[in-house]
Amino acid sequence: MVATTVHLMRHGEVFNPDGILYGRIPGYHLSELGHTMARRVAGHLSGKPAEGAPALPDDGAHEPFDVALVIASPLQRAQETATPVAEAFGLPLGTDERLIEAGNHFEGMKFGVGDGSLRHPGHWPYLWNPLRPSWGEPYKEQVARMHAAIHDARAQAEGREVVLVSHQLPIWISRLAFEGKRLWHDPRNRQCSLASLTSLRFDGDRLVGIHYTEPVADLLPGAAKVSGA
């Protein structure tokens, strides 16, 4: 069997001063901190921190990752996150629609009580079934498209490593499915911070391990307050 690793990377912090659930709405780009996160992860993976990017505490402590493919969701925030990674390895940046954010009825709104969308009865019918979920793209559909993208990338880069830049919910749902766990969950318990790496290790086409890392952990406290996915 041949060992291959697929790294699912969540995009960096997004410029979203109004706290909108932006979902698939085009035009939402990385904040300055988000760009710093993207460059930091590129340096972490390549072993060559980008010019002007803060050095990682463990720079030089590991060999560069053997990345053969970098592919991103078509949304701007994912493309901007993936660009420095692709550049660090001298690779073209690929795009895969299957890595896109989950569809959501509430995108473009503030989600919550008070001034949020939950105060309006017209939205309540979308909340009746959290197991599906009734407010957006079904979990099973997210798993199907994400797992297909993951296995296609794994096959293309057999024996090496791949970076797929996507979004929090699709990444987390993909992980739950690989682990054989239920797909409905409390969003507050997702282990998928900004610019994190959920690394899937395959032996041939068989998943043999999952490893989670946060290369920008020291940048997260302020970023954690930004809404979005």
TrEMBL record:
SUPFAM superfamilies (UniProt xref): Phosphoglycerate mutase-like
Pfam families: His_Phos_1
One MF annotation (Gene Ontology) recorded for this entry: glycylpeptide N-tetradecanoyltransferase activity
GO cellular component terms, A-Z: cytoplasm
Gene3D superfamilies, A to Z: Phosphoglycerate mutase-like
SMART domains associated with the record: PGAM
Record protein name field: Bifunctional RNase H/acid phosphatase
Species annotation: Oerskovia enterophila
